[in-house]
Specification:
Largest sheet: none
Radius of gyration: 20 Å
Number of strands: 0
Order of helices and strands: HHH
Structural class: mainly alpha
Helix content: 55-70%
Number of domains: 1
Oligomer: single chain
Shape: elongated
Distance between the termini: 29 Å
Strand content: under 5%
Length: 93
């Protein structure tokens, strides 16, 4: 734990920072999972000879759904930002 984290006693700021960390983990899991799903879909399509057909790319639905969920999560975290974070400089909101 750094000294800047120890000095921060504002519960809103601590909650926001935790939200950012959770969002980053969510984004990392989403990126890895979507990459794996796309790879499986690609290999399946290549072996079936259907890689040129858009209807064979079912993984796009997973990409759209997970991106929407990640976007909403990011928006919620961004909107929960406290009015002033001493590490961000001047507030522009």
């Amino acid at each position: 734990m750094s000294t800047s984290d120890q000095q921060s006693t504002d519960p809103d700021l601590a909650r926001y920072r935790q939200g950012v960390r959770v969002f980053q983990a969510h984004a990392a899991v989403a990126a890895g999972s979507i990459a794996l799903i796309l790879a499986v879909n690609l290999l399946t399509n290549l072996s079936a000879g259907t890689a040129g057909e858009i209807s064979a790319w079912w993984s796009l639905w997973a990409l759209i759904g997970w991106s929407a969920g990640l976007g909403v999560h990011g928006l919620v975290v961004w909107l929960s930002k406290p009015a002033s974070d001493p590490h961000d400089g001047p507030d522009v909101r």
